[in-house]
Design brief:
alpha/beta; Argininosuccinate synthetase, chain A, domain 2; five-stranded parallel β-sheet
Length: 411
């Protein structure tokens, strides 16, 4: 599709400098109307100013979409991920990754509502987000033209971006002038910070980098104990008080912040091939993931738990690489959700100076049997049975040892 054949474009719009420039650039280069969509994902800042910025950039009032999607985000994206215990490369709780499918879905829906020909995003050509957005678009409506300004325009430096903005009368925040770029992505689940001194993986992050957590050494000197209640794998209450999914995460974020929980300094492998270093803060998420593991410990069968643990890295990789709407993610989700039928009960946790520890679990669906594990005398387990069990499991090892001996090989 030629540029001038495109009449209307829906842009994922943050209200920041880059996407404000993208509005003007799309209007000029494509000669098209621009529709903006700004999602309140729980970034923790006022997003309504995005409306005035979009209007100032020439977007028609009826084409400015600002929506609070926090509950949908928590219920339909974060909670399914928590059921999977999803962690990328052993550490990352996927805070940026999990937000992109929802934004992509709403962009496509708004394109349908407004009769748009195209969707656009402000992700750069170096990052994962361009992939995540565009795989979402492809899955939901491949007929839409996709525009990625960073891969098309010649505004290849901060100096050029600022000059372009000034020439179009766009307001430029003071923090965008003169300093090295520093990128922050935030939502209900986490914050992610990249740039400036963080580009040197040997340099410790400045304390000012951390926005959602106190330094652990500044956290209270007394531990706090909380109880999270689960029903079928989803958290539903805190200390006996029911919460909606988003409200629960927000409250856990407050607790995690106070106790310095959820900091992560990570060098990860991006899908596009390079390594990148970032600082992540997931205070409430770290607490919730620990609690979910805790309730699974007494409600999941060993085989189901071990299979879930084998599937989890695959699930996390699928999510990280932007395949949320793929059949393989849906297949894994179905298996994971099936495993959660009996994951119901309460988990008690201790929060103290950067750490979260499970200290108690209780469930009416528990598989834990005190009769079987007690060190005292019992009537349900015959310890002599273990002898035959060990012999059967040792048989193949004995046969391997006999072959090595026959061939004169060292063990």
């Amino acid at each position: 599709m030629a540029r001038r054949d495109i009449k209307r474009i829906v842009l994922a719009y943050s209200g920041g400098l880059d996407t404000s420039i993208a509005v003007k650039w799309l209007q000029e280069e494509y000669g098209a109307e621009v529709v903006t969509f700004t999602a309140d994902l729980g970034q923790g800042e006022e997003i309504e100013p995005a409306r005035e910025k979009a209007l100032a950039a020439g977007v028609r009032p009826e084409h400015v979409f600002i929506e609070d999607v926090r509950e949908e985000f928590a219920r339909d994206y974060i909670f399914p991920m928590v059921r999977a215990n999803a962690v990328y490369e052993g550490l990352y709780l996927l805070g940026t990754s999990i937000a992109r499918p929802l934004i992509a879905k709403r962009l496509v829906e708004i394109a349908h509502e407004t009769g748009a020909d195209a969707v656009a995003h402000g992700a750069t050509g170096k990052g994962n987000d361009q992939v995540r957005f565009e795989l979402g678009f492809a899955a939901l409506d491949p007929s839409l033209h996709v525009i990625a300004p960073w891969r098309e325009w010649d505004l290849t430096s901060r100096t050029k971006l600022i000059a372009y903005a000034e020439s179009r009368g766009l307001q430029i925040p003071k923090d965008k002038r003169g300093e090295a770029p520093f990128s922050v992505d935030a939502n209900l689940w986490h914050t992610s910070s990249e740039g400036k001194n963080l580009e040197d993986p040997s340099a410790q992050a400045f304390e000012e980098t951390f926005q959602r957590t106190l330094a652990p050494e500044d956290a209270p000197n007394e531990a706090e104990y909380i109880v999270i209640s689960f029903e079928k794998g989803d958290a539903v209450a805190l200390n006996g008080k029911p919460y909606s999914p988003a409200a629960l995460i927000e409250r856990l974020n407050e607790l995690g912040r106070e106790h310095g929980i959820g900091r992560l300094d990570l060098v990860e492998n991006r899908f596009v091939g390079m390594k990148s270093r970032g600082i992540y803060e997931t205070p409430g998420g770290s607490i919730l993931m620990a609690a979910h593991r805790g309730i699974e410990q007494i409600t999941l069968d060993r085989g189901a738990m071990h299979l879930k643990d084998e599937l989890m890295p695959k699930y996390a990789k699928i999510l990280y690489e932007g395949f949320w709407f793929s059949p393989e993610r849906e297949m894994l989700q179905a298996a994971i959700d099936h495993s959660q039928h009996y994951v119901t009960g309460d988990v008690r946790l201790r929060l103290f100076k950067g750490s979260v520890n499970v200290v108690g679990r209780h469930s009416p669906m528990s598989l834990y049997s005190l009769e079987h594990v007690t060190f005292e005398e019992d009537d349900v387990y015959d310890q002599k049975d273990a002898q035959g069990f060990i012999r059967l499991n040792a048989l193949r090892l004995q046969l391997l040892a006999a072959r090595r001996k026959r061939l004169g090989e060292n063990s």
